[in-house]
């Protein structure tokens, strides 16, 4: 099977998954007892059942559940996620407004993770079982064990309160593309990227140590290639494949990590919006963000699969 | 072991007596002998256990987890229907007692002292007692959730992998769909639906958490079912149920065990994260994550200029040390059972 057919097949395979994701999202949220309408009515005793029915009809919350699902889905497909009851704003506007903030955080986290993990992983594998390896393994183990929200709190405590390097909260929200915002991106970005960095480092170390024992490495050495070239050109390239396999899982980790970390650092992204939406039972907003998360992870998985197939010619496309 | 058993078990095996591999001081450098091949006739589990016990960091993990569990159990007395099951109390104070009501010398956010080794929290409660007691929630939820999800995943993956065909196709589509959501997002929504509380949290992490195990077990089963002994069992007329549960699933256990031991930490962090977001246990509960939630505002504002660092550092430290020890155990299990090639060790980690 050619690569193009493989990609096409994978693309077709995600259609039922996307459908399943939308069903789960919808079903879970609509099992919630008490929607924002109940909250509105609870505050106002004068509302008659007739008024209630009218309000429900306005927000598409009447009718049997499958009908609601079909209405919702057909609206979603044309980009209409409904509106937020609390403020009357469009859900899609909110998502578009918040999304860049979360993406910026995620990209920073990824860059930080790769920047730390790949050199450390190489170092640990080359110096396997020596002191430096032991130390870096211990640090990596701490990295996957530390709760990200606590790491965030500790960074605030040490960096902002004790050392005073950062103000605790950004003094004013400059637009995201402003260069000064990069400084305020560092603490939350590091918090999000730490777990990923630690996982990549562990996998890099194992994969490289395994590759080092293979025969082509001996062959390359026997040919008289300098060790540096053997490691960086031959071993590293083959070890990176296992990092790619991990990439999809880590993207999911970064997406879910952003929820908690945005709350810790009061970062105005989708994650913080999600928690607010849960507090206020904003059904439409919860569904939109959950759906978004699901789709993002499906795409990440797809890209990882394709990259894996491209990078490793031994993989059969089936 | 009696003599008759010995004979029947050793039948057909060449036994060499009078040769003790321990005494050999020098070996041919090209020989394949290692300590492991020397004990090659031992069962996989026995060998794994031996290797695990010899792993120093894994044993440190076991010790720390045991100590933390014991401290949690013996922190306050446990009663069942009026009967005192466990009378000891290591924690000096009740975790929910507001101390300044009884003792006027205690103030909110008193720093650590000899009477209160970890200080006083924002509501005037003894932090040390709360942290000891808090282990009960985090640890038990972690173990219960992993036990439940691993069992469901084992059965689900076993059925899916064994039957194959459209059954497998359908069951794996469901798994793929759940796989598209990060666990914490689903848990957040479930807790939002059901409200906070102990069993709600267990459900929140169990309802979809079996997904990873199911995937792993299915992959293993696909490999195992090609073995001749499975064919032999079928040829002898064994029912599907007994082939799956007696012949296939026991062989899928090692990678499952690795993933399970590495997942306990992930669940504990998840539970704490929900507590931190104010969606876990009811506010005021001595659960580690919930304790951090209360300190978030005071960390930044700080009553009269001081920063009550102890209220943030200690609960988080408790989570961190527990999860770290659990991961050390998980790594040890992974090395001992040699399950690396299954990739089980790579799936865990992060929330």
Question: How is the topology of this model organized?
Answer:
The complex is a heterodimer of chains A (about 325) and B (about 350).
Chain A lengths: L2 H28 L5 H8 L5 H10 L6 H13 L13 H36 L4 H15 L2 H15 L18 H32 L2 H8 L4 H38 L5 H11 L2 H29 L7
Helix pairs in contact in A: 1-12, 5-6, 5-8, 5-10, 6-8, 7-8, 7-10, 8-10, 10-11, 10-12, 11-12
Chain B lengths: L2 H8 L24 H4 L5 H11 L1 H18 L4 E3 L2 E4 L40 H37 L1 H15 L3 H12 L3 H9 L4 H14 L3 H8 L4 H37 L11 H14 L7 H29 L6 H4 L4
Antiparallel strand pairs in B: 1-2
From the N-terminal CA to the C-terminal CA of chain B, the straight-line distance is 47 Å
Low-confidence stretches of chain A: none
**From the 3D coordinates, which CATH architecture of the largest domain in chain A would you assign?**
Orthogonal Bundle
Write down the CATH topology of the largest domain in chain A.
Answer: MetI-like fold
Count of alpha/pi helices of chain B? 14
- How confident is the prediction overall: mean pLDDT of chain B? 79
Helix and strand composition category of chain B:
mainly alpha
Number of helices of chain A: 12
| Overall average residue pLDDT of chain A | 82
Radius of gyration of chain B: 25 Å
Question: How do the strands line up in the largest sheet of chain B?
Answer: 1-2
Topology order of chain B in helix (H) and strand (E) letters: HHHHEEHHHHHHHHHH
CATH uppermost class of the largest domain in chain A: Mainly Alpha
Percent strand of chain A equals: under 5%
List keywords for this structure.
heterodimer, A: 318 residues, mainly alpha, MetI-like fold, 2 domains, 12 helices, 76% helix, B: 351 residues, two-stranded antiparallel sheet, disordered C terminus
Q: Can you describe this structure?
A:
The complex is a heterodimer of chains A (318) and B (351). Chain A is 76% helix and 0% strand. By secondary structure, chain A is mainly α. Chain A folds into two domains: 3-77, no CATH class; 97-311, MetI-like (MetI-like fold, Orthogonal Bundle), CATH 1.10.3720. Chain B has 351 residues and is mainly α. Chain B is 63% helix and 2% strand. Chain B has a two-stranded antiparallel ribbon. In chain B, a hairpin with a 2-residue loop joins strand 1 (78-80) and strand 2 (83-86). Chains A and B meet through helix 1, helix 6, helix 7, helix 8 and helix 10 of A and helix 6, helix 7, helix 11, helix 12 and helix 13 of B.
């Amino acid at each position: 099977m050619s690569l193009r057919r493989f990609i096409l097949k994978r693309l077709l395979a995600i259609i039922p998954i996307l459908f399943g994701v939308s069903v789960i999202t919808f079903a879970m949220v609509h099992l919630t007892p008490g929607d924002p309408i109940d909250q509105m009515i609870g505050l106002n005793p004068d509302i008659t059942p007739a008024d209630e029915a009218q309000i429900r009809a306005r927000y598409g919350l009447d009718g049997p559940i499958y009908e609601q699902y079909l209405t919702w889905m057909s609206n979603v497909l044309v980009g209409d996620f409904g509106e937020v009851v609390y403020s009357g704003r469009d859900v899609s506007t909110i998502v578009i407004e918040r999304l860049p903030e979360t993406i910026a955080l995620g990209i920073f986290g990824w860059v930080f993770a790769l920047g730390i993990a790949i050199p450390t992983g190489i170092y640990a594998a080359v110096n396997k079982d020596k002191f430096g390896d032991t130390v870096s393994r211990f640090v990596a183990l701490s990295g996957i064990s530390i709760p990200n929200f606590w790491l965030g709190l500790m960074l605030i405590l040490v960096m902002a309160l004790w050392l005073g390097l950062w103000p605790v909260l950004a003094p004013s929200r400059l637009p995201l593309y402003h260069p000064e915002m990069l400084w305020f991106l560092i603490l939350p970005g590091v918090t999000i990227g730490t777990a990923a960095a630690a996982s990549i480092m562990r996998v890099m170390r194992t994969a490289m140590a395994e590759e080092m024992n293979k025969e082509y490495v001996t062959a390359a050495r026997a040919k008289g290639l300098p060790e540096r070239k053997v490691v960086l050109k031959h071993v590293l390239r083959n070890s990176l494949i296992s990092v790619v396999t991990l990439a999809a899982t880590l993207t999911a980790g970064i997406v879910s990590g952003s929820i908690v970390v945005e709350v810790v650092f009061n970062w105005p992204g989708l994650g913080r919006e999600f928690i607010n939406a849960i507090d206020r039972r904003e059904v439409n907003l919860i569904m939109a963000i959950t759906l978004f998360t699901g789709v993002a992870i499906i795409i990440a998985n797809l890209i990882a699969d394709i990259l894996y197939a491209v990078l490793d010619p031994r993989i059969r496309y089936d | 072991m009696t003599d008759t058993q010995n004979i029947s078990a050793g039948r057909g095996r060449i036994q060499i007596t009078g040769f003790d591999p321990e005494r050999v001081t020098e070996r041919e450098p090209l020989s394949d002998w290692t300590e492991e091949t020397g004990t090659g006739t031992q069962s996989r589990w026995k060998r794994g256990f031996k290797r695990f016990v010899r792993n120093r960091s894994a044993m440190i993990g076991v010790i720390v987890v045991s100590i933390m569990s014991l401290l949690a159990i013996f922190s306050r007395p446990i009663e069942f229907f009026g009967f005192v099951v466990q009378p000891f109390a290591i924690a000096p104070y009740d975790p929910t007692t507001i101390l300044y009501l009884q003792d006027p010398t205690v103030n909110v956010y008193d720093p650590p002292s000899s009477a209160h080794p970890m200080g006083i929290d924002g509501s005037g409660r003894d932090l040390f007692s709360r942290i000891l007691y808090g282990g009960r929630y985090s640890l038990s939820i972690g173990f219960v959730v992993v036990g439940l999800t691993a069992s469901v995943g084992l059965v689900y993956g076993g059925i899916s992998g064994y039957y194959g065909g459209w059954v497998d196709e359908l069951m794996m589509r469901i798994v793929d769909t759940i796989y598209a959501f990060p666990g914490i997002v689903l848990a957040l929504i479930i807790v939002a639906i059901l409200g906070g509380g102990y069993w709600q949290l267990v459900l929140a992490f169990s309802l979809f958490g079996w997904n990873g195990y199911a995937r792993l077990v299915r992959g293993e089963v696909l490999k195992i079912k090609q073995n001749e002994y499975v064919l032999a069992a079928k040829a002898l007329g064994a029912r599907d149920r007994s082939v799956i549960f007696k012949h296939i699933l026991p062989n899928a256990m090692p990678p499952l065990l690795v993933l399970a031991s590495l997942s306990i930490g992930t669940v504990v962090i998840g539970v704490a994260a929900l507590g931190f977001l104010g969606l876990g246990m009811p506010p005021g509960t001595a659960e580690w994550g919930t304790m951090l939630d209360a300190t978030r505002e005071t960390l930044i504002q700080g009553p009269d200029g001081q920063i009550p660092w102890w209220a943030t550092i200690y609960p988080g430290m408790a989570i961190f040390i527990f999860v770290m020890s659990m991961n050390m155990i998980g790594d040890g299990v992974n090395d001992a059972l040699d399950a690396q090639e299954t990739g089980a060790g790579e799936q865990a980690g992060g929330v």
